[in-house]
Design goal:
The protein starts with a helix and ends with a helix. It is mostly helical. It has 13 helices and no strands. Its main location: membrane.
């Protein structure tokens, strides 16, 4: 039975109202506030200050680079784990246990997890003790209160999102495609790179987008694990709103961060679409 026009309107009314009330309206208010000068008039002075001050540009670069590294690390760690859970673990009860272990860190407070990493990454922490015991270094490495500690802490938090996104796609793949590839003489690695990996790209893309956007807006973990030595945009936004009480410039930082993230995602989607179109054209020419 098909849903009529008014039935579709009724179904969409609640989620659209929610998005308008809790996303669109606050964003418009913040965007308008970012254009206000101290006298209450409209001005681009806040944005001029943002793009001409190297301090804020460096903070933006630090935020995006941390988000990029975390996305890459979670993909490199999460994809093999998701592949193992889907294709190598046969017993259902064991799969359930593994999924529970994957999502368990999400039930712990970000503050608790961040302070746990302070203990682990300190000069006398477990990680440095292990590296010295394995003779990989002669002295403790500076792993704490820098960009490295932020990346490690965020990667630990974001890893479940990547694993679950990839696993959701892998477990719905048609296994007959892999069997057909093997019947045609493809080896395990050839089957993976030509069948499994391309078909799992939607999971990789959704996981990467989720991890990247969450890292860009992360505040608690960077503020604790940076030790005040690294600054990301979310920390500056909080500083402007809670300490400096410069609401208009805080709104400017928030809007700039959101627009930058949207632009990067748009470029990524455009490149992915162009790559898929070029691949389709090559396939048509080959046929």
């Amino acid at each position: 039975m098909r849903i009529g026009f008014w039935g579709a309107i009724l179904l969409l009314a609640a989620p659209l109202a929610f998005m308008l009330a809790f996303f669109a309206a606050p964003f418009v208010a913040i965007a308008f506030n970012s254009l206000q000068d101290p006298d209450g008039g409209l001005s681009m002075s806040n944005y001029v200050r943002l793009v001409t001050d190297p301090y804020y540009l460096k903070a933006m670069g630090t935020t995006l680079s941390i988000a990029g590294w975390v996305t890459l690390i979670t993909l490199l760690l999460g994809y093999p784990l998701a592949y193992f859970m889907v294709f190598r673990v046969r017993k259902r009860w064991l799969k359930r246990i593994l999924y529970i272990l994957v999502v368990t860190p999400l039930f712990t407070s970000n503050v608790v997890r961040a302070f746990s990493w302070i203990i682990l990454l300190g000069r006398n922490g477990f990680v440095n003790d292990l590296l010295i015991w394995l003779h990989l270094t002669d002295k403790p490495l500076p792993l704490l209160f820098n960009k490295v500690s932020i990346i490690i802490g965020l990667a630990y938090i974001m890893l479940p999102f990547m694993i679950l996104s990839v696993a959701a796609i892998l477990q719905n793949l048609d296994h007959r495609l892999k069997d057909a590839a093997r019947d045609l003489g493809a080896g395990p690695w050839s089957t993976f790179f030509h069948v499994t990996l391309p078909l799992s790209l939607p999971g990789i893309v959704s996981g990467a987008l989720m991890v990247f956007t969450l890292c860009v807006s992360a505040y608690v973990t960077p503020s604790i694990l940076s030790g005040g030595r690294e600054v990301v945009m979310s920390m500056l936004v909080f500083q402007q709103y809670a300490t400096v009480l410069n609401f208009s410039f805080g709104a400017t930082l928030a809007v700039a961060l959101l627009i930058t993230a949207f632009l990067l995602l748009a470029v990524y989607h455009s490149a992915r679409f162009a790559f898929a179109k070029a691949r389709q054209m090559r396939g048509n020419h080959a046929a």
